[in-house]
Amino acid sequence: MRTIINNVLEQLESFRPGTLAQVEEFRVHMLGKKGVLTRLFEEFKNVEPAQKRELGQHLNQLKNKVQEAVKVHKEQLLLQTERGPKEGDLTRPAHFADVGSRHPVSLVQREILSIYERMGFAIAEGPEIEDDWHVFSALNFPPDHPARDMQDTFFIHTDSDNPVLLRTHTSSVQVRTMETQKPPIRVVCPGRVFRNEAISARAHCIFHQVEGLYIDENVSFADLKQAILLFAHEMFGTSARIRLRPSYFPFTEPSAEVDISCNICDGGGCNVCKHTGWLEIMGAGMVDPDVLQASGIDPEKYSGYAFGMGVERIAMLKWQIKDLRLYFENDVRFLEQFGEEVP
Ligand code: DAH
After folding, report:
1. What DSSP string runs through 136-181?
2. What's the pLDDT at 206?
3. Residue 267: its pLDDT value, please?
4. Do 75 and 126 belong to one domain?
5. How much distance in Å is there from the Cα of 284 to the middle of ligand 1?
6. What range does the domain containing 229 cover?
7. pLDDT of residue 217
8. Where does ligand 1 bind, in terms of residues with CB under 6 Å?
9. Do 173 and 272 fall within a single domain?
10. What is the DSSP letter of 336?
11. pLDDT for res 150
């Protein structure tokens, strides 16, 4: 009997089950009706009384050990199957990988460009690192214009007469296009621009613009107004009205700031439009003859219009986004609200 007890102890020591079924097999083998321990307890009845006390203790300890081992192995295996690799279970629902969505700024930029593409505009792009000529001088900015100040513009080199800087607007691409193409020119220029601004809900040091330029013979302010109205209808719906306010830009004459009727209150007055009924969407004007001349286009023969808008601003108006910083924080909960998943 003692040899059997030692044998069971050895088996217990070396028992390393890989599956729950093996644990159950072991339990039946030891504790089942015909199990090793059950038989030992039966034999125990025949043990001489002198040995009963000591053997009885051994047997009970053994039984407890076997029961404990069965319990522990079972628990460990259950934990492993909960945490461990799931490949084995073909009935589990498939795990779908999260799919990203297009950024609201990209969505609106694409929409703006597609509206102008349908009007016959081509897309032109230029460098983000620019020189003073293309950002300021060719666009008629006087040498002492505040935009040239370090406080407003990020300069890279200032040690020549044509400093290198991060473009502050995409109007620089107008200049590059006029320098390399002959009229008729009809382009829209999307891109990132940089300004030395403190970041707040309404201002950021990086944002996106779309610039537009149309140059041909006999281009008039009426053409500009018509193109803006068409854009407003496509972007904000056919009930949108436009209003042009006289303004000033160094590169256009005359210049205007363009408003649309508030898309929330339809012009009646609300918080979004600060009770004016109008929301500003872009700057525009007729290209100044000096600007045409500077880029090698004959202002006697050609005229043109230009406009420029902020993409983030249009997206804010379209979706009533209150804080510009949201675009750059990359919080997926914000970004995934604007539709169109990208597979
Ligand atoms: N470049 C101007 C800005 O960044 C926007 C602008 C205004 C562009 C009028 C134009 C324009 O082409 O005609 O604020």
Report:
1. TGGGT--TT-GGGSTTTS-EEE-SSSS-EEE-SSTHHHHHHHHHH-
2. 96
3. 87
4. no
5. 6
6. 104-335
7. 98
8. 169, 171, 211, 249, 252, 283-285, 306-308
9. yes
10. G
11. 80
Q: How far is the CA of 281 from the centre of ligand 1 (A)?
A: 11
Give distance in angstroms: CA of 159 to centre of ligand 1.
27
Residues 6+ away with beta carbon under 8 Å from 311:
105, 108, 109, 112, 190, 207, 208, 209, 210
Domain count, the chain: 2
- What pLDDT does 210 receive? 98
Residues 197 and 53 in one domain: no
Which tokens is 211 given?
């610039």
* Contact partners, residue 105, CB within 8 Å, separation at least 6: 208, 311, 312, 315, 327
Amino acid letter, residue 132? D
Q: What is the pLDDT of residue 123?
A: 98
Query: Residue 197's pLDDT is what?
Result: 92
pLDDT value, residue 13 = 87
- Distance from the alpha carbon of residue 164 to the mean position of ligand 1, in angstroms: 20
Q: What is the C-alpha separation between 162 and 3, in angstroms, rounded?
A: 99
Domain containing residue 138: CATH number:
3.30.930.10
In a domain, 343, yes or no: no
Asked if 208 contacts 190 with a C-beta cutoff of 8 angstroms, the reply is yes
Spell out, as residue ranges, where the chain has pLDDT lower than 50. Answer: none
pLDDT at residue 40, rounded to an integer: 86
Ligand 1 atom with the smallest distance to the CA of 213 is 12
Q: Which of 56, 39, 51, 54 is nearest to 4 (CA)?
A: 39
Dihedrals phi, psi of 306, to nearest 5 degrees: -140, 155
pLDDT at 173: 98
Number of neighbours of residue 108 by Cβ within 10 angstroms:
24
Using DSSP's 3-state secondary structure scheme, residue 131 falls into: strand
For atom 2 of ligand 1, the residue with the nearest CA is: 308
